[in-house]
Structure formats: structure tokens, C-alpha cells
Design brief:
two-stranded antiparallel ribbon, transferase, about 45% helix, Amidase signature (AS) enzymes, Amidase, Aspartyl-tRNA(Asn)/glutamyl-tRNA(Gln) amidotransferase subunit A
Length: about 450
């Protein structure tokens, strides 16, 4: 039975605990064993937190035995991206710059999730300082894609995705600044939720761009995402009962989203759209010039803030960084303060135009990524390939970040391809209901 546990949804594991069919201690030991002994374990986990996990599992068992469970995920083991502070445990954000950094208190979201009863299994590998959509990290480890061990898993929440995809955690908590939850989720056939900026606390998370940084789960089902969101923010999960696609209005974004798309992501998306229509969704196509203009502002807004946050630390020891990531940070040095401020003022106007355009739709849909996971070895040896693939990987997901939206990626059924649903800011509950129905249509 324990092998089956490794590939159940977090919600089903929670129900098993609730029904007395699953012992939280046995469940945690099962995951700790898998996380220690799987052939890719060292490429997924930067470090395990065995002592903490066992203590939390024992407490969850006591609550279960007394009929005092704190919620559906009480006793369910999950992983944490290595940018969330964990008291007394190294949190290094995949970078030699932070080697040996040990925080004294948990990040707020980890504290909230622990209060909800989840079990912290350990810290997962990631792109260096979260500044890449690929997941390639020669400084620490590069997590492999579940569908191709020679390919990258997607970043920056690469280990978070692979911990779930390989059965080494029931769910993973990642972060999304430009697509870092949704890319690895899509490439590893998972559900990934990007939350609205400022909805979920980033206190105690190593920053990249504070005006874009968001927290989000990577998991096996939309139901899992709803319960994990509630755990992260200390709230109640969305009501997903009775969700339907009948009459739902969806807008396919034609602007840029399909430029240079590879055959597999296009086929996966088109197949998914056909199934959504068959389930009753009404699908329109629209161009949105404001999206093209917003994407052109990306370098100004992302790189400048990232370098502004990290420049002193980086320039004190640049030799320990992966050169591609170092160069990406340093590109922010050339951006002036007036250009940065003007860029943000223009983006706010573009967000208003976008809000008007999508007001009549339940969600905007587009391929999560226009490419498949690239080959890790070629990324290390071919700089032009690295730059091209990194920019393409993040292009579609950045639409949601730039527009300040909530977003969810679902697997299409074709390996390593996803369909992304984008809603208005703070529309997580509506999106989760819609995607519950979409998930049923796509399964």
C-alpha cells in the first residue's frame, strides 16, 4: 500500500488519514524513504528535514487519533523550495552566495502550513536565486524532467515539481515571479497555481523581484491546489462542488502566445481546447496589443529590480555564480531609475486595458509554455541556446505576472505540455472552480 501512497493526491491522502486508513507516521516514513533512496533524490532535495518531519507526523497522528485534525491536509508530507526560510535549517536559494545561511524562524507561509498540520519533508533544489525558467543549476543540482531525465525540469521551482512528479512528496511549494510555478508544473504534468501578488505572504522568502514575487503550490489536482492555498494563507479552501464548464466563456490569447511554438505544446493545447468545448465551454480568439507592449517592458522591470536587490551581494563574490545567471542579473545595471518608473507607470495603464478586455470572460487560455523541456547538457555548452530557450520558456507565463493575474496550469494529457488559465487579480476561487471542471474534461 505504501508505494501507492506516493502517487496519490494530497487530498486523497488526507481523506485516508481522516478515515483511519493511513497512519501519518507511516506515511511520512514512506516519503522520507523514497526521498532518500530514489535514483534522483540528490537532484531533487537540497536537504531533508527528517527530525522535523517525524515530530510533525507524530503530532498529526495524535490529533487524528483524538478526532481533532486541523484540516484535510493535516499529516500530509510536502516539500518546500529552498527559498523559504526554515528555522535552524540552511536556506540557500540555490546559490553559493548564500551558502551556510541558516534562518532563525520559519517563513510565514511555512508557519501557516505547519499550523494547518502539513509535514515539512525538506528543501528542494531550484534555479539560482530563482532567476531562470529552466531549472538548470550547475552550482548546486539540476533536477531532471520526469518525462526525460536528460532534460531540465523547468524553473525556478524545479525541485518542487520533481519532488511530486517522482513520488517524493505529496505536493511541493514553489514561487512564481515570471512563471516559476507554472513552467515546472507543466513540464512535469502537474497542476500549478500562481497566486495574485500580495495575496499570500512572502515574509521569510528569499526575494527576487518583490513587485512580482508570489507563492504557489505544485500538486496532482486542482483540489490539492485549493487546500494548499488555504494552508499557505491560513484560510478556508474554495468550494469546488458543482463546478461546470457549461456556458463558461474562455478567451484564447492570440497575441505572441503562439509565436515560435513547437509542435507538441501546440498539439497539446489544441486537443485540450477541443475537450473544453465538448464540455460546454464557449471559446473566442482575441488579440491584445497591450500584452505585446507589456512583454517588451519585461527586461526593464524584472532585471532592474532583481539587480537592485542583489547587486551588493553579487558583486562581493560574482565568481561563485553560474555565468548565465550572473549576466542576467547584471543586465539590470544598465536600466535607469526614470526608465524603471516610467515602465511601471505604463504597465499600470496596460493592466487597466487588459482588465477591460477580459472582463466578460471566465478565463484567458493559452499554452503554458511554447517549448518542451530543453536538454540540460546543451544548455550548459551552448549559450545562444540557453538564452533562446530561457526567454521562450517564460514568455507565455509572464503574461500573468505582468498583468498581476492569478493563474493555473493543467496538464493536457500530452507529456510536458500544459494549458494555462489566467483570471483577474484575486480570482483564485473562481479559477479553481473553473479548473476543477476543466480538469474533469481533460482527464
Amino acid at each position: 500500500m505504501s508505494d501507492k501512497w506516493l502517487f496519490m493526491t494530497a487530498s486523497d491522502l488526507g481523506r485516508g488519514i481522516d478515515f483511519g486508513e493511513i497512519d501519518p507516521v507511516a506515511l511520512t516514513e514512506c516519503y522520507l524513504d523514497a526521498a532518500s533512496n530514489h535514483r534522483v533524490s540528490s537532484r531533487v532535495y537540497a536537504r531533508l528535514t527528517e527530525h522535523r518531519a517525524r515530530a510533525e507526523a507524530k503530532a498529526a497522528k495524535v490529533r487524528a487519533d483524538m478526532g481533532q485534525r486541523r484540516g484535510l491536509l493535516d499529516g500530509v508530507p510536502i516539500s518546500w523550495k529552498d527559498l523559504y526560510d526554515t528555522a535552524g535549517v540552511a536556506t540557500e536559494a540555490g546559490s553559493g552566495l548564500l551558502k551556510g545561511r541558516i534562518p532563525e524562524v520559519d517563513a510565514e507561509v511555512l508557519h501557516n502550513a505547519t499550523e494547518a498540520g502539513t509535514v515539512c519533508l525538506g528543501k528542494t533544489h531550484m534555479s539560482e536565486l530563482a532567476f531562470s525558467g529552466l531549472g538548470l543549476n550547475p552550482v548546486t543540482e539540476t533536477s531532471p524532467c520526469v518525462n526525460d531525465l536528460d532534460a531540465v525540469a523547468g524553473g525556478s521551482s524545479s525541485g518542487a515539481a520533481t519532488s511530486v512528479a517522482f513520488g517524493l512528496a505529496a505536493a511541493g511549494i514553489g514561487s512564481d515571479t515570471g512563471g516559476s510555478v507554472r513552467i515546472p508544473a507543466a513540464w512535469n504534468d502537474l497542476v500549478g497555481l500562481k497566486t495574485t501578488i500580495d495575496r499570500v505572504s512572502v515574509k521569510g522568502a528569499v526575494p527576487l523581484c518583490t513587485r512580482f514575487d508570489t507563492v504557489g503550490p505544485l500538486c496532482r489536482s486542482v483540489e490539492d491546489a485549493a487546500h494548499l492555498l488555504a494552508a499557505l494563507e491560513g484560510g478556508k479552501p474554495a468550494d469546488l462542488c458543482g463546478a461546470s464548464l457549461d456556458g463558461a466563456r474562455l478567451m484564447i490569447l492570440d497575441t505572441i502566445a503562439f509565436d515560435d511554438i513547437r509542435p507538441e505544446p501546440k498539439a497539446g493545447f489544441n486537443s485540450a481546447v477541443d475537450r473544453l468545448k465538448a464540455a460546454g465551454a464557449i471559446v473566442d480568439h482575441q488579440n491584445a496589443p497591450e500584452i505585446a507592449e507589456a512583454l517588451a517592458l519585461s527586461g526593464t522591470l524584472f532585471a532592474s529590480e532583481a539587480y537592485g536587490i542583489w547587486k551588493d551581494v553579487i558583486e562581493a563574490n560574482p565568481a561563485v555564480m553560474f555565468p548565465e545567471i550572473l549576466e542576467r542579473f547584471r543586465s539590470g545595471a544598465a536600466i535607469s531609475a526614470p526608465d524603471y518608473i516610467a515602465g511601471w507607470r505604463r504597465l499600470e495603464a496596460l493592466r487597466a486595458l487588459w482588465g477591460q478586455r477580459i472582463a466578460g470572460y471566465d478565463a484567458v487560455i493559452l499554452p503554458t509554455s511554447p517549448i518542451l523541456p530543453p536538454n540540460a547538457e546543451r544548455l550548459l555548452t551552448d549559450s545562444d541556446y540557453y538564452v533562446t530557450e530561457n526567454l521562450l520558456a517564460l514568455r507565455n507565463t509572464r503574461v500573468g505576472n505582468l498583468m498581476g493575474s492569478a493563474g493555473i496550469t493543467l496538464p493536457t494529457g500530452l507529456p510536458s505540455t500544459g494549458i494555462m488559465f489566467i483570471g483577474a487579480p484575486n480570482s483564485e476561487e473562481r479559477l479553481l472552480r473553473l479548473c476543477t471542471a476543466a480538469e474533469n474534461a481533460l482527464s
